[in-house]
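## retry 2 of 3
previous attempt timed out at serialization; input unchanged, resubmitting
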Amino acid sequence: MTAGEALRDAEARLGQAGVDSPQADAEWLMADLLSCSRSELPLFTDTALSVDQQTRLATRVERRFRREPLHHILGTAHFFGYEFQVTGDVLIPRPETERLVELAVAFLESLPHPSVHDLGTGSGCIAVALAKRCPKANVIASDLSEAALRLAKRNAESLEALGQVAFRHADGLDALAKGEQVDLILSNPPYIPSGEIDALQPEVRDHDPCLALDGGPDGLRFYRMLAAEGRSRLNRGGRLMAEFGDGQEQSVAKLFREANWLDVEIADDLSGRPRIVIASAGQ
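## retry succeeded, writing output
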C-alpha cells in the first residue's frame, strides 16, 4: 500500500466517525508517521509503506476513529510558536488562548522585574510561553492536579524555562503565600456549566480532565473567586487577565465591576470573539 492510498483510506475512516476535519487529521497522522510536514506529503504519495508503518497508522487511525483527540495521539501541540507535550491530564493548548499571552506580554514589557501567577497552569503553555517572551519575568505556575504539574515541569525543562518558572501544587490563589503579591494574575479557568459537560464533543467530554472543564452550575465559580479575592493578591497597578467561554462576557464583567475593580475591559481573541476579561487593581 502506498502512502497516498493509506491517506485516502484514513480520511474515509475518520469521516465515518464524524470527525470534524477528517482530511486534516489523516494528514497530520501520516506526516507524523513519515516524519515530514503536511506540505511535504505530496512528495510521498507513491511511497510504499512497510507493514510496520501500515500497522502503526491503522492503530492511530482507530484511536482517532474512537474520538481520542488528535494531539493526544501525536503527544504534542503547538502554542505560541513552541511545542508542548500533552496528555489526557491537561487541556490541549488552543490558538484562542495565544491572545491571552499576547496581552500579558504587552502589559509586562514596561515593568522592570515583573511577577506573574498563572493559575491553573495545566500543560504550562501560558506560563512557559510567557517566560520565553519575557525573560525578566518571574512566573509562578500553580495547579491542583499533580499530574498536570509534572507535565508542565517537563515542558518547562524541554523549552529551557525551568529556571524562570516556579511550580506550586495548590488550589486557586492559595498558591500565593500570605501577603505575597504579583503584578499579573493569568488564568484560563474551568468555565463549562456542569450540566453542559455531557453534551460536549466526545474529544472533550471523554478525554479532557473534568477538573479543567467544570465551572460549577453556571460556569462562573472561578470568576467569582477571582473577582472577590484577586485584587488583594496584586501589586499596585497590577492586572488580572482571564479567559472565559462563549457568551459569558457580560456575566464575567459584571462580577468584577460589582467587586469594585478599578477598570474592567473585555478583549477579543484572535478570531474576533469576546474571550478575555482584563481587570485593573488600581494604584
